[in-house]
Specification:
Elements: E1 4-10, E2 13-20, E3 23-32, E4 58-62, E5 72-77, E6 81-83, E7 88-91, E8 97-98, E9 104-106, E10 108-110, E11 118-121, E12 126-128, E13 132-137, E14 141-144, E15 148-152, E16 155-156, E17 162-165, E18 177-181, E19 190-195, E20 199-202, E21 206-209, E22 215-216, E23 221-224, H1 226-247
Antiparallel strand pairs: 1-2, 2-3, 4-5, 5-7, 6-9, 7-8, 10-12, 11-13, 13-15, 14-17, 15-16, 18-19, 19-21, 20-23, 21-22
Length: 248
């Protein structure tokens, strides 16, 4: 490849500044000539850098058919591999390459972190490019998001899913009963029951939200006591007698 030269006459020295595609190259070269003709000199100059080595798992391309001065060489790693250094090199005037030949290494992703309430499969420290990992919530939790993520060029193709505790919901009102919640209605939380005066609790005073979203054991009931029944009975008799008295 022929380069354009800018010739600066300085006594009997000629300083050449090389350009390629209108870009000034980094080096200059000084030549000495003993023959002059009206202060004009025509110079043709050709220099080239050595061919670069091939790199495993990479493709190499030159911007010119031959690696002459100014040529740019580009290494492109194959899919699933990433370069260890910048992939562009340029042939300089001194016939050396500016830049470092890269290596292409297999892309890896670290084990997902901060995944509360779930486990992963397979569970290992590192995963390689295009490898999937399955995420599943522990018992009592519900998965929100995708159950699989893939290791790609710039890491996991997340976002990672999350696990929310199962919610058993509020317990329907029971007749003559009172219910209180310790810390909500989600997995492993408790609810406590009491009955109004004159009523006895039939069942457990405490129920727990289980992994299936149900309260266990069964919600209790409040049944009237024997004293309350007799009081209700005699109260009703007195009421009926009063009605009969006033109706006479």
């Amino acid at each position: 490849m022929w380069l354009k030269t800018h010739i600066l006459l300085k006594q009997r020295n000629i300083i050449l500044k090389y350009t390629y595609n209108n870009i000034n190259l980094v080096s200059e070269q000084t030549l000495f000539f003993s023959v002059w003709k009206k202060n004009k000199v025509s110079i043709l100059l050709f220099k080239a850098c050595p061919h670069l080595p091939n790199v495993t798992f990479a493709e190499l391309m030159y911007s010119e058919p031959e690696p002459a001065i100014g040529t740019v060489a580009t290494y492109t790693c194959l899919s699933g591999y990433s370069p260890t250094t910048p992939t562009f090199l340029q042939c300089l005037v001194d016939q050396t390459w500016a830049g470092t030949v890269p290596n292409c290494t297999l892309i890896e992703c670290e084990r997902p972190q901060n995944i509360t309430g779930m486990f992963i499969s397979p569970d290992k420290p590192m995963f390689v490019y295009s490898e999937f990992v399955a995420l599943e919530c522990n018992s009592g939790f519900t998965l929100i998001g995708s159950a699989k993520v893939e290791c790609q060029e710039f890491g996991w193709n997340g976002p990672f899913p999350s696990c929310l505790p199962v919610d058993c919901g509020f317990i329907p009102v029971i007749a003559h009963g009172l219910v209180s919640y310790v810390a909500g209605t989600t997995y492993q939380q408790e609810a406590h029951f009491d009955c109004e005066p004159g009523y006895n609790l039939t069942g457990s005073h405490t129920v727990v939200c289980d992994s299936t979203g149900s309260w266990i054991p069964s919600v209790p009931t409040c049944n009237v006591t024997g004293t309350a029944l007799w009081s209700s009975y005699y109260g009703m008799r007195n009421y009926i007698c009063v009605l009969k008295f006033y109706s006479m």
